[in-house]
Design goal:
The protein has 483 residues and is an alpha/beta fold. Helices cover 30% and strands 17% of the residues. The chain is built from 13 helices and 22 strands. Helix 1 (13-24) packs across helix 11 and helix 5 crosses helix 6. The chain is globular.
Length: 483
């Protein structure tokens, strides 16, 4: 049986960031389990055409590792993945990563105060501490449509894009009009023969303030890092101020709706098509998307916006509720991820043998989104209610990493073997959190992926990111049982 001090799971921003901070703190005895053959998490998996970040690159990056070489304000997927590889190499993280290593089960032993981690390949590892960096966008979800497996052509989810399948000259169905779809559709519309875009609910879309970074800017950022720091701060505070409308006073979102409708009117001249593309729910209730070319792509002569409901998938294509069949060669599902219906990243058994999935039957909960009562020495990065609707998740990830590191350093200094958040502290935190969520724009008039089927928002943080940074600035042992 292998032994280590800390097991980290996942090699996206969360896992790599945790590993780097451990290194910087002088902690070198850890292993990272990665289920794939390469690092990168979300930015490895989502390599569909047009994939890019919707937060400016200078903010969507580690604060301790600025990249003066970003080629655009909003970096494409390949550039973000290259950045993560650079970080892993620079900070000597690669030798800690065990690739093709899928975790099957974790069990806590209260006698030894250690976790036993079992891998799918049969290996077993013991460690006092486990940090899950699996993330909330790691499990693609398919729509609940009858007959998906009966389709005789090619089909795949956008997060499992088959680059070997050539869409050129094909008739393609794209199901979904969310964040991935508005990037995929413009990227493939010019190469496919015909594109049928199936829309259930039109999204709110705003212009994307993207541009190429000038060479002089990149040189200045490299030679004068303070200039990039100032740019990052400007971007951060611009996004941070937006949280007021999302979380404090949703009435302000009427301004966003006005600007969104103005953008739509400017881009789409056909009134009938514009009506079909106009959202009927509060601006911000669902994720606000940014794109400069989606509306243009939808108006191409080879693109058909389908708003009739889908009845089922049949071998030839998609059958509609009116009985018509849209015949296609391929189907691309741009239908998001299992984010709200939080499940344990793998089977987890706590201090008394309880299963985390059982604990989360009525909706995932944690203390500060990181620790769960009854599961000692286990930390989650991007756990329940740490997601954002307005700013960079990397900022939130770094806040969580700092809190976890503070806890680990406190445990070592005090020679504490076990920390387990108190049940009443977790309950109080979540009661207050959900009372705040009930007053946000996400509790208005839409059915967003932020909420579970029962309506519980298990995904988003109901405030400013600076508040979360303040609350996680250091570990507070008073709300934990220790041994």
């Amino acid at each position: 049986m292998e032994r280590t001090s800390i097991v980290i799971i996942g090699t996206g921003f969360a896992g790599l960031g945790m590993a780097i901070r451990l290194k910087q703190a002088g902690i070198d005895d850890f292993v990272i389990f990665e289920q794939s053959a390469d690092l990168g998490g979300t930015w490895r998996d989502n390599h569909y055409p047009g994939a890019a970040c919707d937060i400016e690159s200078h903010l969507y990056s580690f604060s301790f590792e600025p990249n003066p070489g970003w080629t655009r304000m909003f970096a494409p997927q390949a550039e973000i993945l290259a950045y993560l590889r650079h970080c892993a190499e620079k900070y000597d993280i690669l030798r800690h990563i065990s690739f093709n290593s899928t975790v099957a089960k974790g069990t806590f032993d209260k006698k030894s105060n250690e976790w036993t981690i079992k891998l799918v390949d049969g290996r077993t590892v013991q460690a006092p501490v486990v940090v899950s960096g699996c993330g909330g966008l790691s499990r693609p979800t398919l729509p609940e449509i009858e007959g998906i497996d009966t389709f005789a052509g090619k089909w795949f989810h956008s997060a499992r894009w088959d680059a070997n399948y050539d869409l050129s000259g094909k008739t393609v169905a794209v199901i979904g009009t969310g964040a991935s779809s508005i990037q995929v559709v413009p990227a493939i519309a010019g190469t496919v023969k015909k594109l049928h875009l199936f829309q259930r609910t039109p999204p709110w879309i705003m212009p994307r303030p993207d541009r190429a970074m000038r060479e002089v800017e990149r040189v200045l950022f490299a030679q004068l890092p303070q200039m990039q720091t100032v740019l990052r701060a400007r971007i951060f505070w611009r996004h941070e101020l937006g949280a007021y409308g999302f979380t404090v006073n949703p009435k302000i979102m009427r301004l966003g709706a006005y600007l969104g409708k103005r953008f739509l009117a400017r881009e789409v001249r056909d009134s009938a098509l514009r009506e079909r593309l106009t959202p009927k729910y509060t601006f911000g209730c669902k994720r606000v998307l940014i794109s400069n070319d989606y509306y243009e792509a939808v108006q191409r002569p080879n693109v058909d916006l389908v708003t009739v409901g889908i009845k089922r998938v049949v071998p030839r294509g998609v059958e509609m509720v009116d009985g018509s069949v849209v015949v296609v060669d391929a189907i691309v599902y741009c239908t998001g991820f299992e984010a709200a219906e939080c499940a344990a990243p793998f089977e987890l058994k706590g201090i008394d043998g309880q299963d985390l999935n059982d604990e989360w039957k009525s909706g995932a909960e944690a203390y500060l989104g990181m620790t769960v009562t009854g599961f000692p020495n286990m930390f989650m990065i991007v756990g329940p209610n740490t997601g954002l609707g307005h700013s960079s998740m990397v900022f939130m990830i770094e806040s969580q990493i700092a809190y976890i590191l503070s806890c680990l350093q406190w445990m070592r200094f005090k020679n504490v073997k076990r920390v387990d958040v108190m049940a009443d502290a977790q309950a109080r935190f979540n009661k207050h959190l959900h009372a705040r969520l009930a007053k946000t724009v996400w509790a208005t008039d839409c059915n967003a992926w932020y909420r579970t089927r029962s309506g519980k928002n298990t995904t988003l943080w109901p405030g400013f990111t600076v508040e979360f940074r303040w609350r996680t600035r250091r570990f507070d042992p008073s709300v934990y049982l220790t041994a």
